[in-house]
Backbone:
């Protein structure tokens, strides 16, 4: 009997957490929407990504239960994120430091066709 | 062969609790890298064509996009609730219905997405010879838009199918539609939601004040 | 089943084709993989044969330019994705990992079967593209040629690669979960055989790097079919974006190919030197270091592509760092031999060959990691020689070594030792004759992917082509004597080499459920004694 009470309060707690998380997610979504209409310059993107990060964090921490997950599962999540960050950061080093010299595009010369109409290289 | 002779449970019997969960998290890590490549391509475009990106993003349907985001967030809450219900003896009878609700919300999402795509087709926003916008990068934006939402949609279809199957299996008391399977499917659904959480500001909210 | 007779081996547990094609037994799936990758190996090898025949003479007289481009592309695509990447993990890893852990099967046996079917589907799609006329972009599919100008079956080939990629990802997933959850209770992480460590690290790379290849193939297909312009400079796109995405996978891919080989070598050398591996902990950490640092170096394939100097310098430095754990492993294998009772059985010949040839390949990698030298050496035969030393002199030799080492376990038969040693020596000689001249050719300036060359390069090319012939004989011989051994080979006991490792406590060949009695995890891993001879001398 005591177990049932404990279980049902656990369920009630869980239900509450999910409800609050859901409300938080919707509010954050509206905040993100609203911030897009404000003239924040480069901070628009930052705001959008930060809010998205918080929402994803809520989904991962509460809905996906990273809160109660063991080290191993948290490591799996971190590994995926980490590998993606490596891709972004190291290619970003290239993009941040590459100097671009605008030039006219030179299309390859199309040979005159032997017979009939020309065809575009696809 | 009796498992008592082996040092630990064999795979013929119920798997170790957590094997499926660990497997799904490892799979989600790979999915993160899968979508991640597209996000890198997106970031390249956004940093190199700020003007074209902004102009193109303004032509996305922010109302439908926001409604869809709300739908997907709600579906995540629904499946999280389904998992919680499954763990409670009293509430277990709601699990199948919540799973069906989640799948239904997913279908609503896809229908709205198709509506959006149809509108974009009519407005000549699909990359091609008669693409409507001429700012540099605008076409790449929409190419990535369709690629990213398309890939996301394919994942949604798989998720809807899985949840729908589980809903049916649960309501008929099938052994393969138990708590573990449910939790694993829910993890997948949450991930697909998380991808959309990032797609929403990146696609719809680049520059709404211009 | 009577209480006297032991259960049938996995080979006899169902004799119909259907029982093989619907199996979830990791050992049978390993055999399915072995047969399919062998078939692809010989297709890729046929392409190489024609290439070497063409290159025996300076003039481009055997095949046309276009046909030559298609040949080296086919060779690369097949050998990398349809042979090397699956070879050790999907054949030896699938067969051995559960046995080494004391488990009955992998964590997800049905997923394992799906992996094989995905591999087969991808392979057949790629083969179809080949038969329809092939692809001429090189296995690297560089843009803008692949997206805008090539008139060949690019999209179809990429679909094949895409499908095969998911086979890899699922195998890696299976291995990771298996190693975490299905180890025998007494088997802690630092009692794992180094082969298991190698499988684990390889699986991490499979799971994290392959998806980026998958998305890259989709992007190239989209660019090619719909001209989205993401890789096209005329639209402001960046061809180097493709290269970043492609090499982010393809560099770790070479560690997918070499780490399992290192794992195999770490099993063979202690056994045939009768000594525990030197510095076990360090070897395990080195495996993890190679896998992780291997993610940081991909830009060394792009030094002359237009990548920024800052990025090139960063990648150059990181590439030097990644050589360190590999070097540590070479030192430790060598140290393992010290004061050992060394026997030169066929597996040991292959393993020792690996150590020497991988060292040469690795050292030449440092030349290529140096920015200034790379400007001269890139896109020359120096690069071709470098990666063949690692992938053929390294991985393929280790694969063959592993096939020989575990053949008695998998089939219950001994291969003929004398013929096996002859084949191993032929492979070693043929390999060096084929690829060492290519280092010199590269330094002298012969570019890669050309089917004609100035006459001054002919002598070295002739050595190379001759070597290829010897190598081919060395590769064909095992086909013959392995097949022979299935019918006429001596019956192997459970442990003909006196090796350590739980797999040797199972019968040869094992029953479907692997162990008749629970395996005993030894107190020390690699508990070899140099003064204890092998149970039986080689025939």
Residues:
């Amino acid at each position: 009997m005591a177990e049932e009470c404990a279980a049902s309060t656990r369920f009630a707690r869980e239900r509450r957490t999910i409800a609050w998380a859901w409300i938080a997610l919707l509010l954050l979504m509206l905040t993100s929407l609203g911030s897009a209409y404000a003239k924040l310059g480069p901070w628009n993107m930052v705001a959008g990504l930060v809010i998205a990060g918080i929402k994803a964090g809520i989904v991962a921490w509460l809905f996906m239960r990273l809160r109660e997950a063991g080290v191993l599962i948290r490591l799996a999540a971190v590994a995926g994120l980490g590998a993606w960050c490596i891709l972004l950061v190291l290619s970003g080093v290239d993009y941040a430091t590459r100097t671009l010299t605008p030039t006219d595009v030179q299309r390859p010369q199309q040979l005159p066709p032997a017979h009939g109409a020309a065809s575009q290289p696809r | 062969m009796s498992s008592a002779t082996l040092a630990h449970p064999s795979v013929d019997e119920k798997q170790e609790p957590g094997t499926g969960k660990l497997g799904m998290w490892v799979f989600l890590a790979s999915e993160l890298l899968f979508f991640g490549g597209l996000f890198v391509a997106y970031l390249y475009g956004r940093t190199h064509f700020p003007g074209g990106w902004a102009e193109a993003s303004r032509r996305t349907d922010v109302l439908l996009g926001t409604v869809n985001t709300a739908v997907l967030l709600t579906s995540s809450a629904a499946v999280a609730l389904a998992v919680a219900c499954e763990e409670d003896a009293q509430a277990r009878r709601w699990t199948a219905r919540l799973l069906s609700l989640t799948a239904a919300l997913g279908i609503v999402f896809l229908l709205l997405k198709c509506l959006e795509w149809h509108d974009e087709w009519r407005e000549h926003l699909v990359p091609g010879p008669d693409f409507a916008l001429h700012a540099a990068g605008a076409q790449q934006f929409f190419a990535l838009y369709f690629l990213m939402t398309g890939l996301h949609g394919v994942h949604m279809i798989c998720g809807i199918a899985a949840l729908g199957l589980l809903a049916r299996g649960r309501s008929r008391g099938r052994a393969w539609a138990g708590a573990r399977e449910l939790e694993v499917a829910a993890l997948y659904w949450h991930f697909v939601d998380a991808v959309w959480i990032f797609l929403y500001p990146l696609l719809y909210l680049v520059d709404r004040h211009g | 089943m009577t209480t006297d007779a032991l259960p049938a081996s996995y080979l006899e547990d169902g004799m119909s084709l259907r029982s093989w094609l619907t199996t979830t037994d990791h050992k049978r799936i390993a055999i399915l993989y072995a047969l399919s990758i062998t078939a692809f190996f010989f297709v890729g090898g046929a392409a190489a044969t024609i290439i070497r025949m063409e290159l025996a003479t300076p003039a481009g007289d055997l095949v046309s330019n276009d046909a030559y481009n298609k040949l080296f592309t086919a060779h690369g695509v097949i050998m990398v994705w349809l042979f090397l990447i699956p070879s050790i993990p999907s054949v030896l890893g699938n067969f051995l990992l559960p046995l080494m852990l004391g488990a009955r099967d992998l964590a997800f046996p049905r997923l394992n079967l799906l992996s094989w079917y995905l591999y087969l589907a991808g392979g057949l799609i790629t083969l179809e593209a080949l038969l329809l006329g092939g692809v001429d972009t090189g296995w690297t599919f560089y843009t803008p040629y692949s997206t805008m100008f090539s008139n060949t079956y690019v999209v179809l080939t990429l679909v094949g690669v895409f499908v095969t990629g998911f086979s890899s990802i699922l195998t890696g997933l299976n291995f990771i979960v298996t190693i975490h959850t299905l180890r025998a209770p007494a088997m802690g992480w630092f009692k794992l055989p180094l082969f298991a460590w190698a499988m684990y690290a390889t699986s991490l790379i499979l799971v994290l790097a392959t998806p980026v290849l998958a998305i890259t193939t989709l992007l190239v297909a989209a660019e090619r079919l719909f001209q989205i312009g993401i890789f096209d400079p005329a639209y402001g796109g960046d061809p180097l974006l493709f290269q970043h995405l492609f090499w982010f996978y393809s560099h770790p891919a070479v560690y997918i190919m070499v780490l399992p080989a290192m794992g195999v070598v770490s099993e063979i050398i202690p056994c045939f030197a009768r000594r525990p591996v030197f510095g076990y902990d360090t070897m395990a950490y080195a495996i993890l270091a190679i896998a992780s640092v291997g993610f940081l170096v991909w830009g060394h394939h792009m030094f002359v592509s237009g990548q920024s100097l800052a990025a090139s310098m960063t990648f150059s430095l990181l590439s030097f760092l990644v050589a360190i754990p590999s070097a540590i492993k070479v030192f430790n294998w060598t140290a393992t031999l010290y004061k050992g009772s060394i026997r030169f059985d066929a597996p040991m010949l292959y393993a020792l060959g690996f150590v020497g040839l991988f060292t040469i390949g690795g050292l030449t990698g440092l030349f290529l990691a140096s920015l200034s030298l790379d400007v001269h050496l890139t896109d020359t035969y120096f690069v071709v020689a470098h990666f063949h030393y690692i992938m053929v002199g390294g991985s393929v030799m280790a694969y063959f070594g592993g096939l020989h080492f575990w053949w008695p376990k998998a089939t219950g038969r001994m291969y003929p030792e004398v013929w096996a040693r002859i084949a191993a020596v032929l492979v070693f000689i043929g390999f060096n004759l084929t690829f060492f001249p290519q280092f010199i050719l590269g330094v002298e300036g012969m570019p890669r992917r050309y089917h004609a060359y100035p006459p001054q390069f002919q002598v070295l090319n002739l050595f190379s082509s001759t070597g290829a012939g010897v190598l081919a004989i060395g590769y064909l011989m095992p086909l013959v004597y392995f097949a022979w051994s299935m019918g006429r080979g001596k019956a192997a006991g459970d442990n003909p080499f006196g090796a350590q490792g739980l797999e040797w406590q199972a019968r040869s060949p094992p029953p479907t459920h692997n162990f008749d009695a629970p395996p005993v995890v030894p107190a020390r891993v690699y508990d070899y004694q140099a003064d204890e001879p092998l149970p039986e001398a080689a025939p």
About this structure: The CA atoms of residues 30 and 36 of chain B lie 9 Å apart. Confidence is low (pLDDT under 50) at residues 1-15 of chain B. The interface with chain C takes residues 1, 5-8, 10-12, 15-16, 18-19, 22-23, 26-27, 29-38, 40-41, 44-45, 48-49, 127-128, 136-137, 139-140, 143-144, 147, 151 of chain B (CB under 8 Å). DSSP finds six helices and no strands in chain B.
